[in-house]
UniProtKB/TrEMBL annotation, chain A:
GO CC term, one of those recorded: plasma membrane
Protein name: Multicomponent Na+:H+ antiporter subunit A
Domain called MrpA C-terminal/MbhE: residue spans: 680-759
The keyword Membrane belongs to this UniProt entry's keyword annotation: yes
Top-level taxon of the source organism: Bacteria
Organism field: Nocardiopsis flavescens
Biased composition (Low complexity): 927-941
Coiled coil: none
Automatic annotation (TrEMBL), chain D:
Alphabetized UniProt keyword annotations: Cell membrane, Membrane, Transmembrane, Transmembrane helix, Transport
Gene Ontology, cellular component aspect: plasma membrane
Pfam families registered for this protein in UniProt: MrpF_PhaF
Native organism taxonomy: Bacteria, Bacillati, Actinomycetota, Actinomycetes, Streptosporangiales
Family as reported in the entry's similarity comment: Belongs to the CPA3 antiporters (TC 2.A.63) subunit F family.
UniProt main location, coarse: membrane
Transmembrane segments: 6-24, 33-51, 57-80
InterPro entries hit by this protein: MrpF/PhaF-like
Membrane topology: Multi-pass membrane protein
Localization per record: Cell membrane
Name of the protein this chain belongs to: Multicomponent Na+:H+ antiporter subunit F
UniProt entry tagged with the keyword Transport: yes
GO MF annotations, alphabetized: sodium:proton antiporter activity
Automatic annotation (TrEMBL), chain E:
Pfam families: PhaG_MnhG_YufB
Keywords: Membrane, Transmembrane, Transmembrane helix
Membrane-crossing residue ranges in chain numbering: 6-27, 39-58, 64-86
MF terms (GO), sorted A to Z: sodium:proton antiporter activity
Family per similarity comment: Belongs to the CPA3 antiporters (TC 2.A.63) subunit G family.
InterPro entries in UniProt: PhaG_MnhG_YufB
This protein's name: Multicomponent Na+:H+ antiporter subunit G
Top-level division of the source organism's lineage: Bacteria
Organism phylogeny: Bacteria, Bacillati, Actinomycetota, Actinomycetes, Streptosporangiales
Automatic annotation (TrEMBL), chain F:
Name this polypeptide is given: Multicomponent Na+:H+ antiporter subunit D
One Gene Ontology MF term: NADH dehydrogenase (ubiquinone) activity
Occurrences of domain NADH:quinone oxidoreductase/Mrp antiporter transmembrane (ranges): 125-412
Residues spanning the membrane: 6-24, 31-57, 77-99, 106-124, 130-148, 160-179, 199-220, 232-252, 264-286, 293-312, 318-341, 362-384, 396-417, 462-481
Amino acid sequence: MLLLLLLAVLTVTTAAVPVIDRLPGRWTGWTLAAVLALAAVPVLAAGPGLWAGGAPVEAHLPWMPSLGVGLHLRMDGLAWLFCALVLGVGALVTAYSAGYFPPGRRTGFYFLMSAFALAMTGLVLADDLVLLFVFWELTTICSFSLIGLSGPGASRPAVRTFLLTALGGLALLAAVVLLWVRTGTTRLSEILGDTAWTQDTAFTTVVAALVVLAVFTKSAQFPFHYWLPDAMAASTPVSAYLHAAAMVKAGVYLAMRFTPAFTDNPLWGPVLITAGLTTAVLGALLALRRHDLKELTAYSTVSQLGFLIAVISVGTPQALIAAAVHTLAHALFKATLFMAVGVIDDRTGTRDLRELGGLARAMPVTAALSALAALSMAGVPPLLGFVSKENVFEALLDIPHAPWAGPLAAAVAVAAAALTVAYSVRFVYGAFWGGRPTRTGDDRPREAGALFLAAPVVSALSGLVLGLGVALLNPMAARAAGDATGRTAEPHLALWHGLNPALGMSAAALLLGALLVRFTSSGERLARYRLPPVRGTAVFERVHAAVISAGVRTGDATRTDSPTRHLAVPFVLIIGFAAVVALAGPDFGPPAGPTSRPLDWLPVVLVAAAVLTAVTTRSKMAALALVGLAGFATAVWFLFLGAVDVALTQLLVEILTVVVAVLVLRRLPAGFHRVRPSRTAATAVIAVLAGAAATAGAYALTGRREPSAVSAHLLDNAPADTGGTNVVNTVLVDYRALDTLGELTVLGVAGLIIIAVLHSAGLTADAGERPAVSRTNPVWDADSNTVIMRTVARVLIPLLVVWSLYLLMRGHSAPGGGFIAGLVGGSAFALAYLAAPSASVARIRLAYPAVIAAGVLTALLSGLLGLADGSFLRPLHADVPLPWGGHYHFTTALVFDVGVYLAVVGVMLTALNQLGLPRPGADAAEASPTAGRSTATGGTR
Amino acid sequence: MTLALTIGVLTAGAVYLILQRGMVRIVLGFVLLSHAANLLLMSAGGVFHRGAPLLGRSATEALADPLPQAFVLTAIVIAFSITVYMLTLAATGTGDETEDAS
Amino acid sequence: MTGPLRRALRITWFPFFYGARVVASSFQVARDVLTPGSAASPAFIEVPLQARTELEITAIANMVTLTPGTVTVAVRTEPPTLWVHGLYTADEHAFFADIHRMEDYLLGITRRGGAPARTADGEVSP
Amino acid sequence: MNPVDIALLLLGASMVVAVGRILVGPTKADRGAGSDVVFFGFVGIVALLGLRLDSDALVDVVLVCTLVGFLAALSLARLVSGGER
Amino acid sequence: MTPLEVIAVACAVAGSAVFAVGALGLVRLRDFYARLHGISISAALGTALLLLGLLLWFPSPANALKIGLALLVQLATAAVGGNALARAGYLDRTPVTADTRRDDLAAADPERHGSGD
Amino acid sequence: MNPVLLPLLVALPLTGAALLAVFTSRTAVRLLLPATAALGLAGGLALLGATGGGGILVHQVGLWPAGVSIPLAADAFSALMVTTTALLVLVCSLFALATGEAERRYFAPLVLVLSAGVYGALLTGDLFNLFVFVEVMLLPSYGLMAIAGTLRGLRGGRTYVTVNLLTSTIFLAGVALVYGTAGTVQLGELAGAAQRSPAVAAAMGLVLLAMAVKSAVVPVHGWLVRTYTAPSPAVTALFSGLHTKVAIYAVYRLYAVVFEGQASLLWIGLVVFTATMAVGVLGAVGETTTRSILVFHMVSQIGYILLGVALFTELGLMAGIFYLVHHMVVKASLFLSTGAVEHVYGTGDLERLRGRARGEPLLALAFLGAALSLAGLPPFSGFVAKLTLVTAAFDAGRWTVAAVAIAVSLITLMSMLKIWGSVFWGRPPEPETETGAESGAGTGTAATATAVRTAPPRLRTALVLPAVALTAVTLCVGLGAEVLLDLSAQAAAHLLDTSTYVEAVTNR
Ligand code: NA
Ligand code: NA
């Protein structure tokens, strides 16, 4: 309950930041600090109970029960330590922020700081791996956003940091999922409590490697260390909290958590200690070379994190105690130093050691607390840093793996510690005592106000107090290390252990450090040497660029607006598919009857002739006519197969296609483009293979079964069910009217989109060849010459209309129906259009979109009427008595068909009127006969 | 077999045209391809019974499967709609050309 | 015979009259098609018409086109004129005579008074 | 052999000839002429199939064919003249 | 077969033969305009015979109406289509054979430019 | 909910569309378009309510016997899809109203027909009817694609039409072969047919192949990448949420019902979809405009979504369905937030946009949230989606697939940060003098006439809210993941054991 409340308070606070931030002045920071401090109180209060051996505090709330993932929280000794750190340092830093920033609204900053506190608290309290991961990623997002928030220049570092830490996050995700799948649970305590799964060394090694990756990226271990200095683009409070005290410790926390599972793994220890010590030395070395105090502090953080990782690798309770105490010590001194850097920056306007010096006089408090923190960092008694570092040395000496490992590791650690001493001196001496005094006189810097300094003072003094009273930390450290390792830990934290190797190492480190300070001018000389030119950010950018260029190349493969290439791929796939099926050689059974008749060869030959010639001709007109022939031959096939309605529709559609195509072709050049022979050959190969596949598919996969049940039902029941005897038509308007409704919608939409597209894009200028004959020749005169067509059309048009209505009415019992009738009606309009002496006369001034819409609405209406009989599109029947006796069998299917009719006619009207618009430029040509003639000379073949 | 052959010839021609330059050839290719698909639908109903499914005119036994015929009718009209639209596209913008250069 | 009856008979007789005309000229063209060589002497010839209404002009123009050996290429309504592509125009007199015979027959149907009388060279007598 | 089959063959051959004209051209007008023959031949084929398949449903098809043939002929002519009316 | 059916088949065969002759004209005749005359054979005489054959095969009043209508439309098509095509060909300046005797159309052109010879 | 009402989901938008085709006034559009879209959403929610507990609604349209009738059926899967579709239609319509695009000629009716097609496709239990509804969905899309009137739009329009027509024809051929082999196209009657008969399997293979092209999996993804960048942002958002997703839905449904999840073929899917994930994300990171990045990235996400069916385990299917819904929402949000920028500044070119977060914090937040969700970061829905999917992959022993899925999400983040860093962060651009926007910018409004202006205009709230709303949805779905997880599990259950669905559809 306590833990849920804690998270709830933090959540509510975060959500409330936009409201809180309306407070005037610096109150947002103070309020947040107060909340964090208050939140820390019950946590701290729970400490003694835990140290006394009490059960961990737990809380549960369901989240994703179907996955078995819940809001399981658990505070044991280890979690307590980190939780206290997060809240405590959080309170200090937010309080500091209030003074750091000039008054004004900073909603984003405070929101993210608060969210970060929430995320970090959640992370250390999570007893569910998934939950842990969620909070882990949230800290990453907060870090990314906070860095980016600090200004335009910070966006690149933010992105770099984000991507790198996200890489680690994904490794963690993989580890989480692997463990989950392996153990069947996401409960961290259960997984770590029962480490039967660690018997599988291969599996454990994989998981360990993933966790290592997560830890290293989050805690800035070599070779990923570079992000941390990069992240210094963020404002100082962010650096102090996220990039020194809290977020970077998430890796440390994770490594400590997983210690029981991985200690025995052959990968874990060596990798951790190698990387840790390398990082410790490298970080310290780099810190010593910095001029920017913030960068120095950042590299120092890297180095200290290296110490922590190295000591965790040892895996013994002693080592974990050292890690726990050093985590605490580091949080305190590093937060102090960052805050001090912020103060210096604020007061002097610079962080560059070359411009700073002798600030101690002007800023004595800052100088004092910086010195306290630096001494703790350097491991000088009686500060907490001394105790923690000595424990680290001691633990390292006890590396269990090999007898030589301990001394070697300890030696390296001493070297790193010596460097630490050196850069600690560089920081404090360089800024406060040495160097040229920073500005003098009235311009000289002044000490910061009490409220600004309050937070660093608290953290600096804590390091001193806890160092002096370090024995008080024993129960806490014991519980933390015990909970981390699963073994009992017996801490003996004290300022004085007697004369032991660790003390010697401490002394050695201090001595060596002093020598370094002496002979390198506090590192100043080192700064002149060039280090190997490998910079982390540069490597990152190179990898980044490589990925992007790989991406560009990937995109290049499809970077074309020519439909052809996009169309070729599916064809090739189908050919491949057919080949695979053929090679598998499945038995599809014998044909259920004879598959051909002699007369069939007539359409075969016609189709073949049409297709062969259509593909070879370079004349668009010829191609159009030949494709039309192929359509006619197809219609013959339909007739052969007993599909009269289909043949009729096919014919009508074919002709209307030709009519429309002519309207389009006249605007285009008469010939097709030339194509390279190689491309023609490739195309031909694909075409022939596709044709073979189609033939094989059609032959093998059809005609090998008995007539279907649905076919039998239709043929047996159509008249009884629907009152119709043209079964195909009953399928269209009764049984599967939904299909027809869709089809009619498609047709109607085609009409609309033709209008829409032409409305927005317009037709191309006419590219067809102009007639070559003089305009004064009698053959030109359209008014006279169309008299024949007009006169015949005047007879034919009413004939077509009547005929179409007849076809509409009889569709249910004979070939016909809405579509066929509509197409015939449509051809009446086409005829009227063609016969007119000019395009403007030809225009049919009907609201054709309305005709289309009326058609669709009529069909829908007849469908809705069906609801009266229990279903949409269920036809209603009525026998209408006729005045001359007998009765007419009326069905709403006919209404539906009327809708179809209207839509078809509407679309034909649309196509003719829209595509038949006068040719752009035609009027101009008429106005100037010379224009007509000049085309005439060029236009003949 | 004859029907399958027709389907194959139509498909081959269609594929060839579709893979050429220029919108008009592509459109014509698709017209052929839809013929092929429609014949395939007819083929799916079987080719042994070829009587027109108009009841009351002849014996029911030899009648062709009406369902694929209805399918084809629907498919023809849909293909027609798209063809008309594609022809419109061919007449807009850059005209027929579909490629920048060969 | 009275006018209406006469016209009814003419209408009834029309298919046979025109059918014979078509068959005859079909054979003429078919001979050119089926045998080597050609007797053709093509030309585009202007044919002034007696027909006046659009229906008359249309009908005669169509009859000309439908008859193998002659095709109407262009039409003018004011004054009514056809331009006919004739395949066998060596004997222009016969060419015009054939067309005039059809026109006269037609006008005999469409007009109460029948076709106006013509002179020997096909011109309409004043 | 059914005499109607011979007739079908003749019409089929006619259409192949017409296809040749469409393909060879050389003028748009020639292609138009070839196309006309194709369309007329098709009407003929449908009529013959009426006999051959003994299906009077084809009478309707013939009628529709002739009706739309008119449209086709006019359209193709329009194309020959470059869209000129 | 009934006698009527025999006549029907005979009509059909004769019609297709006539049609084929006209179609052959597409190859044999020398220019576009000459070929139009061949088409007339097919379109008028050929199809008329074929339609007559169909009517005789299904002799009924309804069919007579339909086929008669079809014949009329077919002839109209042949005529109007032939005219349209001829004119279109002329507009497109389709070349004529060298032995074309004269061109009154060009003569009727006041501007006398670009005539079809 | 009475199953008799199922067809109304199709009929009502069609009615709205028909009315809007006649009444084209601004007022009519502003009233009818959102109202009809909202009606669809209400219908979807009602469906969810009726099916969320595992029920299935079936209606044999026309009340003919099962097998003769076209059945419309809704289970949790279709209900989820319908609801998400309706949400997107509504939000994208509102966005289009805000940009003014909705008032273009026939935009509104086309969108409504499109939605009707999608609803029909999601509900139908008949293969041929599916073909028809896919066409009902596609035809308006052809118009919407080219409606922008730019050259790029027209060219994209051509590729779009031709590829989709080809795919539809392949699909139709597949349906033909299915009828040829099985003698039925009714899904219920086809249950397990592919497992019983190699002929049906081959025929269905062709259908699935067509669906694969439609869902733009590698190597047939190029068309999507090239065409979805062409229309306006609202249209792209709509398409991204609807089109490929219908194909994906069909793949799930068909493989589950007709193949009964046949295990021996799953490897093909694993290979193809893994490649799709990888190729898509690489392509995305290489692009240089907001839209092309997002579009290319769709390909990658399609790979993720389809992995679910390729795993064909309970968890896998559930993960895939969850991912599907999540993706529809998030991708639309991204298109709309970047689209708002594109609309106002006239370009989506990363080089020309900078520092937009400062002026448009809300929009920036909407983008960032959705981007993080896309990359699978908590607390957004994308995290749950990725988590379940990766878990399912590991659980099925597909380590490589899981590893690729994880690695791809890093590059996803990279590509999203590319947009973020370029468009929203950084120094706002110096006043530029250039005015000629590229023709590819695409919205066709006055804003396209000028590039980034000296004084950047503020975005209207109506332009920002759609993206914000969708990002809020992804956040809520992430935080309260259980609701969607539960529905996805319900949906997956019906795919894993199709007997309930089959019995309902066949009336047995
Ligand atoms: Na003639
Ligand atoms: Na940029």
